[in-house]
Design goal:
There is one protein chain. The protein is 67% helix and 1% strand. With 643 residues, the protein is mainly α. The chain has four domains: 112 residues; 127 residues, no CATH class; 75 residues, Orthogonal Bundle (Methyltransferase, Methionine Synthase (B12-binding Domains), Chain A, domain 1), CATH 1.10.1240; 175 residues, Lysozyme (Orthogonal Bundle). A two-stranded antiparallel sheet has the order 1-2. Helix 27 runs antiparallel to helix 28 and helix 31 packs across helix 37. The N and C termini lie far apart (76 Å).
């Protein structure tokens, strides 16, 4: 019986290999536009869960021909795979471009996903009958510093011609384009400005690439509004690196600007100074006076106040945020902390109590503030699905498609299929799906499903610990905390061994190629070559060595080391204050959004892994600790060594 089972597994493996090879060949034919070759493979997948992809490929290639056979039948299928809705979106946009509004309107109600291009086509479809209403609705898409698709531009031109978008609206968007550093959009908007108040497009390029040179040559005798906006843009470009230099140039020209423009400048100077950890940030923010600050500006005014230890300003800045921004966990937490310092204990505890039930960075910190431990035992829950539940979930074509796509290395397609498959599942079904993904070593998809649950949780699925045997030797030889290593790996790769970032970082620990070569030399790995970076043991060996290296160089502080692993040791040191800083405040005031979010997740991951590995201490707040000035400590150590 044992030999029969082995034979069945081998046959199944060969069958998968053959089918995978043919599917990838069919996909290549589609991407090459080879319809004849694609058709040769289609029959083979007629009864396969992957059939919708082959049909989608075929229909995409002939979608732009008159009345493509099978298209309407495909679009009428149940929406149990994203490729049906993807084809529907392509077809609707094609109908809109052809001005076939009746066909567009008939199919549109079945579309489940949308984007700005489609949203503007929806508005265009209503134009003949509801022109005035449609053009007013199009205004909602106008006020952004990002570029918009041509389907929106058509509406904007009509709205401008009809006076529904005013000259003032053009100025607002011109300013937003400059704030977003979107020079191509700013240039496009110049054509809608009055000629007597416009500028040459070349000035924008100079202000963007050489702001200081632009300001040094500047003469503001009789400036237009557009010229003043470009000057403000150049000043703020300069302020990103050197707030003091921008302020020095500003004082030369300040009198040429009206009060609103002056307040606008100080609002952004305060913002850039806060991101540069400049102590004058709050003073410059105050000089903005009644200027309406954006969400970004208010967030960084709050962070500057945190860094300065000004808790009244923390509370005041959060209080000025929009209702939606105030509901974010980050600002609820810091508002509670401010209230606690300002003597509003009961209000603070109410916020912290609600927040402590959330399973994230701020939920853990809130629980620490209240002295609450994992007393409900939720981390200990180990979900065991029934065989019937597992079989029912695995029988779903969407699950089979995800597993097949993942097996072939098509992770982007697999992720889309998976998200589509789990979007309507309840907590129990999500955990069943998570178990199936975990057993198929699709750890990123398993985490994805387990993270979605609302009331029923399994933290062993949220925080899996694969490859533990392989990792033990590396952890011990570098004397690292296992929970921190797993906390970082979970954030880096979600345990995908072949993960590769868009900047080239590879493997479980997302080691950069140049870093890998440096470490390999340090370890005396004479046979190292870049292909080894995705090999499990090599990746773990290089990654854990680098973790130890940055940890040691940064005073054995895992907060700084986590920041360094993402953004480099130099930046992690640069963000340290001149006086001791609460670790949570250090993390909150990291200027790079990606790194700030990364460190929060690595450290909260670490806390959860420690609990799952049997250690309730230290708490997250204790782990974050106090960030002292290691620059000064290093100098003192050097002086002692010299003596």
């Amino acid at each position: 019986m044992k030999y029969i089972l082995i034979l069945i597994c081998l046959v199944s493996g060969f069958a998968h290999a053959d089918q995978d090879e043919d599917f990838l060949a069919a996909r290549d034919a589609f991407r090459a536009g080879d319809a004849a070759r694609l058709d040769q493979y289609a029959d083979e997948f007629r009864y396969s869960p992957l059939e919708p992809y082959l049909t989608y490929y075929q229909l995409r290639l002939r979608m732009y021909t008159p009345n493509p056979a099978g298209l309407k039948e495909f679009l009428s299928r149940p929406d149990d795979t994203p490729v049906v809705d993807m084809l529907r979106a392509y077809w609707l946009k094609w109908q809109a471009k052809q001005q076939h509004w009746e066909e567009f309107a008939a199919e549109l109600p079945r579309l489940l996903t949308t984007d700005d291009e489609m949203a503007c086509y929806k508005l265009q479809a209503r134009l003949p009958k509801e022109t005035d209403l449609v053009l007013h609705e199009a205004r909602e898409f106008w006020f952004t510093g990002a570029g918009q698709p041509e389907s929106c531009t058509v509406l904007f031109r009509q709205a401008l011609q009809g006076g529904i978008l005013s000259e003032e609206d053009v100025w607002k968007r011109f300013r937003m384009a400059l704030e977003a550093n979107n020079i191509p959009l700013a240039k496009q908007l110049l054509e809608f400005l009055p000629k007597d108040s416009s500028i040459k497009a070349g000035l924008l390029d100079t202000a963007a690439s050489h702001p200081e040179r632009f300001l040094k040559k500047l003469k503001l005798a009789k400036s237009t509004q557009a010229e003043r906006m470009v000057v403000l843009y150049a000043l703020l470009r300069l302020a990103k690196q050197l707030p003091q230099l921008a302020y020095t140039h500003w004082k030369k020209y300040e009198d040429h600007f009206d009060f609103d423009e002056q307040h606008y400048f100080y609002g952004w100077l305060g913002y850039e100074a806060a991101r540069n950890h400049d102590d004058r940030a709050l003073a410059w923010y105050r000089m903005a006076r009644d200027a309406s600050l954006t969400d970004r500006q208010l967030a960084w005014r709050t962070r500057a106040a945190l860094r300065a230890g000004n808790w009244h300003e923390v509370w005041s800045s959060i209080d000025q945020m929009s209702a939606s921004q105030q509901r974010e966990g980050v600002w609820r937490y810091w508002k509670a902390r401010a209230w606690k310092v300002l003597g509003k204990e009961s209000e603070a505890e109410e916020i912290l109590g609600e927040l402590s039930h959330e399973h994230n960075f701020y939920g853990l910190l809130a629980a620490d503030e209240l002295g609450v431990t994992n007393s409900d035992g939720s981390l200990a829950v180990n979900f065991e699905p029934s065989l019937m539940d597992l079989e029912a979930m695995q029988a779903q074509p969407a699950m089979q498609r995800t597993i097949a796509l993942y097996r072939m290395g098509l992770r982007e397609e697999a992720a889309k299929e998976w998200s589509w498959a789990v979007r309507k599942l309840d907590d129990k079904q999500l955990l069943v799906a998570s178990v199936i993904a975990s057993r198929n070593e699709m750890y990123d998809r398993s985490i994805n499903a387990a993270d979605r649950t609302v009331l029923l949780h399994d933290f062993n699925l949220r925080y899996p610990a694969p490859f533990r045997d392989s990792l033990q030797e590396r952890i011990q030889e570098n004397n690292l905390e296992e929970a921190w290593v797993y906390g970082l790996m979970r954030q880096e790769s979600r345990f995908v061994t072949q993960a590769k970032s868009n900047v080239g970082a590879a493997g479980l620990m997302q080691v950069m190629p140049a870093t890998a070569r440096w470490i390999a030399r340090k370890l005396g790995m004479k046979d190292y070559h870049k292909l080894l970076l995705n090999q499990l043991d090599t990746n773990l060996r290089l990654g854990t060595y680098y973790m130890k290296d940055v940890l040691t160089s940064l005073g054995n502080n895992p907060v700084l080391a986590s920041a360094a692993y993402n953004a480099g040791p130099g930046r992690a040191k640069q963000w340290i204050g001149d006086k001791p800083l609460e670790g949570a405040i250090y993390v909150e005031t990291i200027p790079f959004e990606e790194t700030r979010d990364y460190v929060k997740k690595v450290m909260s991951n670490t806390a959860y892994y420690a609990m799952l590995f049997g250690s309730a201490t230290p708490t997250l707040k204790q782990r974050l600790g106090i960030i002292g000035s290691i620059r000064k400590t290093a100098m003192k150590s050097a002086m002692v060594n010299e003596r």
